[in-house]
Amino acid sequence: MQRYPYDRMVCVGFSMMPTLRPMDLLEVVSYNGSSIRPGDVVVFFAKGKRHKVAHRVVSVGHGNVITKGDNNSKVDTDPIPSKDIVGRVVYSIRGKKTLCVYGGSRGQLRGSIFSTKQLLDRALSSLLRPAYHRLARTGIALRITPLRKKIRTVVFKRPHGDDTQIFMGSLLIARHRSWNNRWFVRKPFRLFVEPYIAGTDDEYA
After folding, report:
1. Is the separation of the CB atoms in 44 and 52 below 8 Å?
2. pLDDT at 26
3. Residue 106: is its pLDDT beyond 80?
4. pLDDT digit string, tens, across residues 146-194
5. What are the Cα distances from residue 198, in Å, to 154, 183, 201, 202?
6. DSSP assignment, residue 140?
7. How far apart are alpha carbons 70 and 56 in whole angstroms?
8. Are 96 and 159 part of one and the same domain?
9. Residue 152 and residue 65 share a domain
10. Residue 24 within any structural domain of the chain
11. Domain range spanning residue 174?
12. What CA–CA distance (Å, rounded) separates 40 from 100?
């Protein structure tokens, strides 16, 4: 099988969950003249961002592509010029596993499934959120489990501010970026990190 030039980079955000997870090592191949297809997971230079972004292509036309994170409710605001596409994500290396990242029609189907599941999840979450927050504030989940010792906080100094990340073992469960001043917490881990983020807003990824 012919291998095209590729690059590797680390996923740091939640927007492509569950396809890509924070700390996944991504193998990105150049299109090398081939066509960008709806459903592909592409890496690109995003307007106003200092780092590259990996999102799924929703549509292609007029020299631009429209993208969306599998875990985002809306498509990205700005069309991406094709020249700003670095390449396509073909594999995600997660620990000892190498996972294929599908593109094209198969990728479109997977993206649609994730979007539908996300809509259902958000609808259910809106009903359960008050009770969930009350339970989290009690701190009971943290007190009755042996996980307390496995929770650690790491602060990374970025050029534009602090990036605070909370890990449970090796799993990234929450993060706070000082430049947008919001916590992002993976469900159901608010039950365990509430003492660390009490009084803050949150979103779930």
Report:
1. yes
2. 95
3. yes
4. 655 578 888 888 777 888 888 887 788 888 878 777 788 877 777 777 7
5. 17, 10, 9, 10
6. H
7. 7
8. no
9. no
10. yes
11. 128-199
12. 12
pLDDT tens, residue by residue, 120-156 = 776 666 666 667 667 666 666 666 666 555 788 888 8
Q: Are residues 21 and 76 in the same domain?
A: yes
Residue 1: inside a domain, yes or no? no
Task: Of 178, 180, 153, give the one whose Cα is nearest residue 166.
Answer: 153
On whether the pTM is more than 0.70, the answer is no
CA distance 27 to 20: 12
CB 124 within 8 A of CB 187: no
Give domain status of residue 166, yes or no.
yes
Contact assessment for residue 85 and residue 32, using Cβ atoms and an 8 Å cutoff: no
Could you tell me if residue 71 is inside a domain?
A: yes
Query: Which amino acid makes up residue 25?
Result: L
Report CA torsion sign: 181, 187, 191, 193.
negative
Q: If you ran DSSP here, which 8-state letter would residue 144 be given? A: S
CATH of residue 93's domain is 2.10.109.10
**Strand, helix or coil at 195?**
helix
How many Å apart are CA 102 and CA 91, to the nearest integer?
Answer: 9
What is the number of domains present in the chain?
A: 2
